[in-house]
Amino acid sequence: xxxxxxxxxxxxxxxxxxxxxxxxxxxxxxxxxxxxxxxxxxxxxxxxxxxxxxxxxxxxxxxxxxxxxxxxxxxxxxxxxxxxxxxxxxxxxxxxxxxxxxxxxxxxxxxxxxxxxxxxxxxxxxxxxxxxxxxxxxxxxxxxxxxxxxxxxxxxxxxxxxxxxxxxxxxxxxxxxxxxxxxxxxxxxxxxxxxxxxxxxxxxxxxxxxxxxxxxxxxxxxxxxxxxxxxxxxxxxxxxxxxxxxxxxxxxxxxxxxxxxxxxxxxxxxxxxxxxxxxxxxxxxxxxxxxxxxxxxxxxxxxxxxxxxxxxxxxxxxxxxxxxxxxxxxxxxxxxxxxxxxxxxxxxxxxxxxxxxxxxxxxxxxxxxxxxxxxxxxxxxxxxxxxxxxxxxxxxxxxxxxxxxxxxxxxxxxxxxxxxxxxxxxxxxxxxxxxxxxxxxxxxxxxxxxxxxxxxxxxxxxxxxxxxxxxxxxxxxxxxxxxxxxxxxxxxxxxxxxxxxxxxxxxxxxxxxxxxxxxxxxxxxxxxxxxxxxxxxxxxxxxxxxxxxxxxxxxxxxxxxxxxxxxxxxxxxxxxxxxxxxxxxxxxxxxxxxxxxxxxxxxxxxxxxxxxxxxxxxxxxxxxxxxxxxxxxxxxxxxxxxxxxxxxxxxxxxxxxxxxxxxxxxxxxxxxxxxxxxxxxxxxxxxxxxxxxxxxxxxxxxxxxxxxxxxxxxxxxxxxxxxxxxxxxxxxxxxxxxxxxxxxxxxxxxxxxxxxxxxxxxxxxxxxxxxxxxxxxxxxxxxxxxxxxxxxxxxxxxxxxxxxxxxxxxxxxxxxxxxxxxxxxxxxxxxxxxxxxxxxxxxxxxxxxxxxxxxxxxxxxxxxxxxxxxxxxxxxxxxxxxxxxxxxxxxxxxxxxxxxxxxxxxxxxxxxxxxxxxxxxxxxxxxxxxxxxxxxxxxxxxxxxxxxxxxxxxxxxxxxxxxxxxxxxxxxxxxxxxxxxxxxxxxxxxxxxxxxxxxxxxxxxxxxxxxxxxxxxxxxxxxxxxxxxxxxxxxxxxxxxxxxxxxxxxxxxxxxxxxxxxxxxxxxxxxxxxxxxxxxxxxxxxxxxxxxxxxxxxxxxxxxxxxxxxxxxxxxxxxxxxxxxxxxxxxxxxxxxxxxxxxxxxxxxxxxxxxxxxxxxxxxxxxxxxxxxxxxxxxxxxxxxxxxxxxxxxxxxxxxxxxxxxxxxxxxxxxxxxxxxxxxxxxxxxxxxxxxxxxxxxxxx
Length: 1245
What we know:
Blueprint: H1 2-10, H2 27-48, H3 54-95, H4 100-147, H5 152-157, H6 160-177, H7 183-202, H8 206-250, H9 252-258, H10 261-311, H11 321-362, E1 381-391, E2 401-409, E3 413-418, H12 424-432, E4 436-444, E5 448-451, H13 462-467, H14 474-483, H15 487-491, H16 510-523, E6 528-532, H17 540-551, E7 561-565, E8 577-582, E9 585-590, H18 592-596, H19 602-610, H20 627-637, H21 643-648, H22 671-681, H23 683-712, H24 722-768, H25 772-777, H26 780-822, H27 826-871, H28 873-878, H29 882-931, H30 938-977, E10 1003-1010, E11 1020-1027, E12 1032-1037, H31 1043-1050, E13 1058-1063, E14 1066-1067, H32 1073-1079, E15 1080-1083, E16 1092-1093, H33 1094-1098, H34 1106-1115, H35 1119-1123, E17 1132-1133, H36 1142-1156, E18 1160-1164, H37 1172-1185, E19 1190-1194, H38 1198-1201, E20 1206-1211, E21 1214-1219, H39 1221-1226, H40 1231-1238
Parallel strand pairs: 3-7, 3-8, 5-6, 6-7, 12-19, 12-20, 15-18, 18-19
Antiparallel strand pairs: 1-2, 1-4, 8-9, 10-11, 10-13, 13-14, 16-17, 20-21
């Protein structure tokens, strides 16, 4: 450790400076040990029909390390009892004159005993923490592995919030409890041994102390039970808060666009308020726990001394110095196990609840690998489903698909079509093994590459997203970039394919994300390709390009088996086989011509009625794709806008990095951080707490001084009875006890509650009001870490740390004063030692703070990986990458364990040196007592030496807790950093608008300039146009033309640099953001749903009646979907809408828009994920429900905007052309006319 401390004193440390765990201590090795024992425990529980216990698995897996610690515990145990024995010898020596060398021998023995105690205590903690960190690592890895294998229903029963809480809080509770692993055995033995030695001093009187101890046990058991319940409730409420925070952060763009950020701020605050109630309850019970633990030894001594005095009042036996101070030393030893009982109940309660939560999670149902047979095909069919019936899991009563029969030949192109909610995506899930097979047979012969309906993108470079762990082949990579129409997109990025993509692809449009996900699938060279409506989010030209170059008969995958869900009927003639899904089964299968020949068939009706305006594609073997001309077309009309060029070019550095590097900070935590905490907590309450603590400490010290006075007058005719001394002593004990309780209650109830409330609220406000650029450049895991890990420090550790620090500081000061008043020579020793203490502490803190910062930085990636993987689990499993992601997690866990173990080792480095110096303090007190034995009384020596023995611990714990206070400052810094984030404009202003504004919806852009940051180019360059109230306008344009920026400017996600936007004559820059955003509505391309009821999803502010909500659901064709449920509008929607298809989610967003009924509506490809039939119905609904509203539509389907009043074509941030569709189509040279022809729209329209 010393080399690292030296390095840390010279420069700021990085994780590369810390040592890595040995091969047998890596996360992978530790998880393997745990898994073996956990599997045996599950088998045992099945055999004996009991619940499996994680603790038993932990003990069996890591017992060798526990046994090593047990040896240190035994030695340390022995040393603790040698203290009073040596103290008795010293007092006897002082009271009975004898040869001087005996006193010096005793002093040396005291010193050697103290040194041995220090060394074994350090080794004991290292052994316990070694087990603790192995337990945490194994449980974190087990939780991550489990999350990769959950069934759909199991995934819906948990959440990313709960998983984050288990990773951050629950595993910590268990880890710290392992440092107390020996206490259940050691506590009873230590109590018995202490009572035996007390019997030697006080005789039967010690039984009074035993009675007090016995009374304390049920009190502590009761308090422990209350703490257990409190921790259980707190963890559940914490899960709820974190889940709402996660949903708010994940859906932040929608919240801002809808003006719901204030509403969700209230929701999080309400959840936080409930959590704070639990924290307050825990604090109260902790205060009583501390009270019982602290005052029990005081009352044990009071009771024992009182009984001794009463029993021996006439026997001549008196409470002399030896008897009193040896007994006090034993009472202090007795206090340790009694106080440990409190910590054992407190820590044990939290650990028990955490173990139960993790056990329940680890026992959730996993996917059955036998759902899909992976045998080699012998009949030429690579996919064969026979008489299949499927459910989400084995416990579900509802069949999702039934009577499924179909085959797909090797190398064929198969399309899956059907209306929204008929089971197309579920059919795909059966092939991926994601659904429980109730009956039948599913055989898939070959490796799979999968593109989900909502593309899953990692926070990595474009290249890494495509490679997905495969080796880089430049020629292959380049060909796939061209085939997936990504070449032009990469040209716009500063670092090309090395440009970093944000979490969930925040800096890409839906089209880019789908193409990137498709490129990943193509690059990974599988035998079977499964695409779940992957082309719905791309433009017509891009759609054609991808089909021709990737999926079609002459595409890169022409020799592969391709299964794709589609709503694009123009591709169907090129398919070898078409599966028609209706009413939870496959009703038809055949080629395009075969199905069209079936009169009255579902397929023919769909094509005849809803695809009459689309020209289907035909292919000739002699026709080559004109790639060059196609690329030119893409330059003009690619509507899958790359937000990087519009929205995010401001954050790309030269190296292509998007995400900002997390600032680790440097040096010690600033004083201003602690002052800010004090202000948040309430300075007046801190002053009151410190005053109570000071007076309480004076009363506690007074008990020792009074005992010295009592012992000095023992047997003398001083005129005072034992009752007098006992009365004063008892008064001091009661005062000290009461003040201890009041101090703790004040700290927990006022200081801790105030700080926890203010800090979380201020951080939440700072985050939710931050501009979108903040969320684009900071990973969700990094932000979540502050709301989980750092807030946990504020909630659970800070107050306790401060109380302990101040208590030990006051004890140290008072002890030094007492010792120096008795033996003034002690000053010659204590002053230089305190100087050494200060030097070592500062030397330690430079390294410890750096390691603490590294530790915080290594935590965030663990949570980020868990969040990312949990949302993209289907893709990870389909590509058979589960093991690869477990390895990623193991590496991150090793980083986290490396920083944590370094932190603990630094702490023990400090303890060894400080307590070693403390041993010299004890030696010095003993030595000076021998030197001055003729001038001081035995009582004074007992008081001095007794306090000196405690001073070692006092000074060490003072310095250690000061270090912990400094380390907690790291969390405070990270929280305060989010207090002062750059903020959006004011939510509310004094500028008044008509109550029913906007009445018409007339939109006027005048000379509007907008850029995303000062140093970036204009993205809207003097754009001007007028849209009359009630007009329907379709918006198209090339990549980077400014289409998305129009909505960004309209909703003021970015403020304009120059120019104005007026809606019904009102300059929107003058009104509050909340008013503006609640008066407009947007239906985003990617639908967002929350883990709440139908009512809370569609009407979170509860402004509308049931009848109005049902009408909106009916208009969006969802009434039937929800009306049959017994809970009606109160039925739960899973987080992210996991229990709904993507098409249904988009319809739900439409229902929101209908319910809001604003005069301005923006549709960003709102029907991309639904079939043509439903699309046709939706367009009719929009025309009917929004006939008087101004509607701006960005659409990839040209048919969607052909009935618009006007078409706006944007180019380079200005309006290139704007006219009616008819007029634009008349001009064959117009950009829109070229788009319509390329999209296959018939000229007869």
